[in-house]
Amino acid sequence: MGFIGAGPVTQAIHLPHLAGLSDRLHIAHVMDVDPGTAAAVAARCGARHSSSVEELLADDGVDVVAICSPHAFHAEQAVACARAGKKAVLVEKPFATTTADAERIAEASVETGVPVIVGAMHTYDPAHLAAEEHWGDLPDTARHIRSVIQLPPNARYEALATQLHSLPQPPPQRDLSDPAARAAAISGSLLGLAIHNLPLVRRFLPHVEAVDTALLLRPFGYRVTLHGPDGRTAELIGHIGTAWRPEWTFEVWGAHSELRLDFTPSYVRAGSAEATVRTPDRTLRFGPYQHNGYDAEWLHLADLADGTAPPRHTPGELVADLRYATGLAALAGTVLRQQGVAT
């Protein structure tokens, strides 16, 4: 494996997960624009290092690539990985920043035959996949969806997970009295945090007709309500505050059944989610399983590189997920341009 980008997510989430999967995946090359970070992170796993994407792609010892760079570089780098003939590529969420860029990645994947997956770990979670086999017609009968992501600051998890080498500079404070800044802030929070669950939301609310309310939560977060053309509604809450107790839930209520998924926080290797499917005559529970969604996506990447499994999601589906997320962010931004800011 080669890593493009060796920031906190690579150091505190991906490397610990891959250490437990060393029978399938070995980190061979770490690239980061900061040569010191690249060298320090590579030393932890006995890998080569560089500060050039071209050098990593030219490394014959790299079969698959994980793109963990800033969002704006995902499309260019994913296309380059496919053109370089790598066996498989994982692009951290979001897939791209625009639909056009997502389509570029998809086209390169189809043309080269190099499979590309997105690091939307919850779509790979074993408990979610087990529940999917038993939720029946819930995608057709869903009436309300609720996604809640309540987390402590990332730095608290990162400090417990690993000793970070070099912290990126925090983004500058926005003047949220500016309507354009409010729109940019809600877009960033939805594409940075809500996007973990948005592929699940789209499964049960495939078309967004309008965003009814959009609020920014301090110090970081959002509350967005929306509805579809058939009367379905959804509520999305994300908040990174000062409390320690995390909550990462996804719930769906339908005409005759309901679904609840309780996910473990990203920085905690605590197994899969726990899933509950309820109907009038039965309650089914799944998980927790040993592997969580991160483990499952890495193992799927190894299967793709070995040619022993097809991609779970087609390039067209990945583009549709990104289009859904950016469309939602645009609608929420339009609402926020006309509203104040929550505290």
TrEMBL record:
InterPro entries: Gfo/Idh/MocA-like_OxRdtase_N, Gfo/Idh/MocA_Oxidoreductases, NAD(P)-bd_dom_sf. SUPFAM superfamilies: NAD(P)-binding Rossmann-fold domains (SSF51735). Residues 2-119 form the Gfo/Idh/MocA-like oxidoreductase N-terminal domain. It comes from the Bacteria. One of its GO terms (molecular function) is nucleotide binding. Pfam families: GFO_IDH_MocA (PF01408). PANTHER family: BILIVERDIN REDUCTASE A. This is Gfo/Idh/MocA family oxidoreductase.
